[in-house]
Amino acid sequence: MNSSVQKIKERLSIVDVVSSYISLEKAGKNYKAKCPFHNEKTPSFFVSPDRGTYYCFGCNAKGDIFSFVEKFEGTDFLGALKILADRAGVDLEEYKNKNKDKTELYYEIMEEATIFFEDNLKAKLEARSYLLSRGLNDQSIEKFRIGFAPDSWSSLINHLKKKDFKTEDILAVGLIKKKDTPDQTQKEDHYYDRFRSRIMFPISDSAGRIIAFSGRIFGQSEDSKDGIVNAKYLNSPETPLFNKSSVLFGLDKAKSSIRNLGYSIVVEGQMDLILSHQSGFTNTVAVSGTAFTDSLVDSQNKINNLGLIKRLSPNIIFAYDGDGAGLRAANRSAAIALSLDMQVKLAVLPIGEDPADIIKKDKEKWKNIIKNSVNIISFHLDKIVEETDDLRKRGHLVKERIFPFLRMINSSIEKDAYINEAHKKTGISETAIIEDYKNYERLNKTEDSFSKKEESIETEKKSRREELEKRFFGVIFSDSLLAIDKDKINDLKDKLEQDIGEDIFKNILEKYEPFKENLSLLAEIWYGDKEQQLIKELTEIIFNLEEEIFKDMASVLLVKINQKEHDKDKQKIDEDIINYQKIVEKIEDIKSRRLK
What we know:
Elements: H1 2-11, H2 14-19, E1 25-27, E2 30-33, E3 45-48, E4 53-56, E5 62-63, H3 65-73, H4 77-88, H5 93-98, H6 102-123, H7 125-133, H8 138-143, E6 147-149, H9 155-162, H10 167-172, E7 176-178, E8 191-193, E9 198-204, E10 210-217, E11 233-235, H11 251-261, E12 264-267, H12 270-278, E13 284-286, H13 305-312, E14 315-318, H14 324-339, E15 343-346, H15 355-361, H16 363-371, E16 374-375, H17 376-387, H18 391-408, H19 412-426, H20 430-443, H21 445-451, H22 453-459, H23 464-477, H24 479-482, H25 486-500, H26 502-512, H27 516-527, H28 534-566, H29 573-594
Parallel strand pairs: 12-13, 12-14, 14-15
Antiparallel strand pairs: 1-2, 2-3, 3-4, 4-5, 6-9, 7-8, 9-10, 10-11, 15-16
């Protein structure tokens, strides 16, 4: 590993890497910029060419080229290693062979499955002909690694087993499912392929590694034993590699264009995206098989998909299908983007048409649609004016359609500008709109305080430990979350108390007891739709929380030791040093346990 890392560092400077993501300004021997990891008005992010490191005095983000790419791209170390190795022209085969872990094994399984699907598409002429009839060319099929899952219950699992992959690992990445049997036996014939008779679209992370699939039905209908009858699209479940809110289809191929062009285009389907790229709109991503969430980070502080796009550019155009469902989906996505301080536009498509249809028929028409995209709030104001001349009805529609967007905007100046625009377009007095909006905000104040909680925590620069404490005790305080698996949650609580000590645990508990109701509600918002993952996420939170607590304890002891050495007070200094070493050992033990 060291040789690969060293080779990359020799070939890529910290300035070259960071400046490819953000604009740097010379500051003496160093460089400065506005930090990409938190909002700030004046630059506090500094890059040192001599040290090969960066540091932000605002949020304390720091590290080298690998940690920067990890944090900016929302990937892990191996992902950052791959991105930088590709850029530096460094071969990682030696590293992979010597340092394979479970996660890397999962990536290998997904890669092998992708190759299997690609090979099957070459043999399935009807499926390939269908893709060509939709307007895709051979280069796009190859570039996006489109494949085909045969109409078989076990072709993929049999293929992967021949490659010496274990059933438990194939199951872990969501490629197979277990049959429901009375005795819950683990026999091999009680597992079957999740994807059958489907055109397969691989979903990649920002490093280009395959982490999931979205399969479009083709040929025979799905059997009801799969749990879904005639589902047009079947997507991978969430797995150790795949979190639906942390990736967008095509982002790995679009990120460079988004950064260079200064805006992104978001479409709904895979065909929409591939045809967009094929037509030169390489700054396009798709939501199919993934999901937007209303925060910048997920439960483990990992950057979410809209957060990734925002770092590349805050300007975004939603180009969803031109029907009622498409507009509703665009409204939901736009509201989330507005809450993250993004500049949101809407590409207005003809009713009943999607981007793929338009691009196939007339590329110039698609170019003009994107060129003429309009601000999302301006679009709705124009629609209101078109629909009615009645001021009373217009006022009702402004409350119904415009106020929810205004509520998501953080800037008071922007809100005032939109209120003024609403006044000019609708003819309703500005005073009346302001008064109605104030009433609307009062009615929705409680909801707002919770829906933007994670964002406010980041803005207020709360400590990582405090955030972890809130998440953990929020679950403990929540009766509905406890009901999911009370015994396991209580076991985790007891383990935390045992590890950090009864007194420390009691002090933290008492700290959050007065906020029990609010924290339990927030926990239910965070984890209410993740029942299957709750124990796993809670376990990870405890690992992180214990690490933070022990780091704090170590810091306090180190101060004591240094003070005693300065005062030449040798009384009990040896005991303090022993205790410090024990705490350091506990931190290392946590790190080793997390790797198991």
